[in-house]
Write a structure and sequence with these properties.
CATH class of one domain: Alpha Beta
Radius of gyration: 21 Å
Low-confidence stretches: 374-382
Helix content: 25-40%
Structural class: alpha/beta
Shape: globular
Strand order of the largest sheet: 13-12-11-7-10-9-8-14
Order of helices and strands: EHEHEHEHEHEHEHHHHEEEEEEHHHEHH
Distance between the termini: 54 Å
Mean pLDDT: 94
Number of strands: 14
CATH architecture of one domain: 3-Layer(aba) Sandwich
Strand content: 15-25%
Length: about 375
């Protein structure tokens, strides 16, 4: 049978909370529909991977990614591991001939992202890596994206993107959190990335960013709050706010266009009812009614994106969050950090090889780059 009709043989790498709570349920739903077959699981903790395999009925469990790739030869590898290892694992999977679906943050730098993209074979139908940006794939986002692209609302003029969440000291007591090397960044990278990605997907290419970051409460290497002002290629302007200091938690996007205001308010995922369209005076009632008809409700979720990814793989299409479609969000976040840490405006396309922010999101900035341990500290650690 051809790949277009057989289930995609899928391996899950990493068996923590995101794998068990989001990825595995989505995979099991599509397995029941005959779209995928979960054939392997990998984790560095043998008890964890064997426990998941036994619970979920996965036939192959291993602590060795390379061995799994050689012995199982999966079609699709789902990375549910920390961002620091995404580059190495994604490149290994791509070189083994598998597609990759990688949890956010995609990887700690643009250099890492470009290395993963280069590992793909590049031809039509060849495997590639894509990123988990599930908020693009709910029915609400699809509906609003189509209307924006068609010009139904007129020109987008001004927008606001808000991810204001709350994380306490116990959250940051976990050793890998709040560190550039292991978490990949603060709320701009690890928390607000989904809302930022959706804003950029709806608004189109950005041209420049002016950012600000602060470490106000938590004893961490990264920021715990950031803001940005954005200018888009079409002239529209926007603000972005990311925080882990906000007891009244909310995720919000608002876009003011010539003929309407579009608002999305939710927390970790949305339904059609979470969107609101307010028309400008004079817009016909029948037009507004058509705008507000979102159709069947498909919540934003890992399942919604995975279903689209599988369809794209079968059709030999590039998935929306692969290649340039995923890179634009990481480039924006890199630019936000560079602007905040250098007190300058950063333009799209500016960060490339030779720029310190291309290889590390902190860019080596004083007060933000991790302290270099002394020789005595190194000996103590060993």
């Amino acid at each position: 049978m051809s790949r277009s009709t057989t289930p995609l043989r899928t391996a899950v790498v990493g068996t923590g909370g995101i794998a068990r709570g989001s990825h595995l349920p989505a995979l099991q739903t599509l397995a029941a529909e005959g779209e995928v077959d979960v054939v392997a699981a990998v984790d560095i903790e043998e008890s964890a991977v064997r426990g998941l395999a036994a619970t979920a009925g996965i036939p192959y469990a291993s602590t060795d990614l390379d061995a799994m790739l050689a012995e199982v030869a999966p079609d699709l590898v789902v990375l549910c591991t920390p961002p620091a290892v995404h580059r190495e694992q994604a490149v290994a999977a791509l070189r083994a001939g598998a597609w990759v679906w990688c949890e956010k943050p995609p990887c700690p730098s643009l250099a890492d992202y470009d290395a993963v993209e280069a590992a793909g074979r590049g031809g039509d139908g060849d495997p590639y890596a894509s990123i988990v940006f599930q908020h693009r794939f709910g029915s609400g986002a699809r509906h609003i994206r189509r209307l924006l692209r068609e010009g139904a609302f007129g020109r987008p003029l001004v927008a606001h993107c808000q991810t204001t969440w709350y994380r306490d000291s116990a959250y940051y007591a976990v050793p890998w959190r709040g560190r550039w090397a292991t978490e990949g960044g603060g709320p701009a990278m690890g928390h607000g990335i989904h809302q930022t990605d959706l804003l950029l997907d709806l608004m189109g290419p950005w041209s420049e960013v002016r950012g600000m970051a602060a470490r106000l409460v938590h004893d961490v290497e990264t920021e715990d709050v950031s803001t940005a002002q954005i200018r888009f290629a079409d002239g529209a302007v926007a603000t972005v706010v990311n925080s882990v200091l906000s007891p009244d938690e909310v995720s919000r996007i608002r876009i003011d266009c010539e003929r309407a205001t579009i608002e999305l308010t939710h927390l970790y995922g949305y339904r059609n009812a979470d969107w609101r369209i307010t028309p400008a005076p004079g817009v016909a009632e029948e037009t507004v009614a058509a705008w507000r008809d979102f159709g069947a409700d498909e919540p934003s979720s890992h399942l919604a994106q995975l279903r689209t990814l599988v369809a794209d793989i079968r059709a030999g299409r590039r998935h929306a969050t692969s290649g340039p479609g995923g890179r634009q969000t990481l480039e924006f976040i890199s630019a936000l950090y560079k602007s905040a840490f250098t007190d300058t405006t950063v333009r799209a396309g500016e960060i490339g090889p030779g720029d310190p922010y291309y290889t590390e999101l902190h860019g080596g900035a004083p007060g933000w780059a991790p302290a270099t341990p002394s020789e005595e500290e190194k000996r103590t650690c060993h």
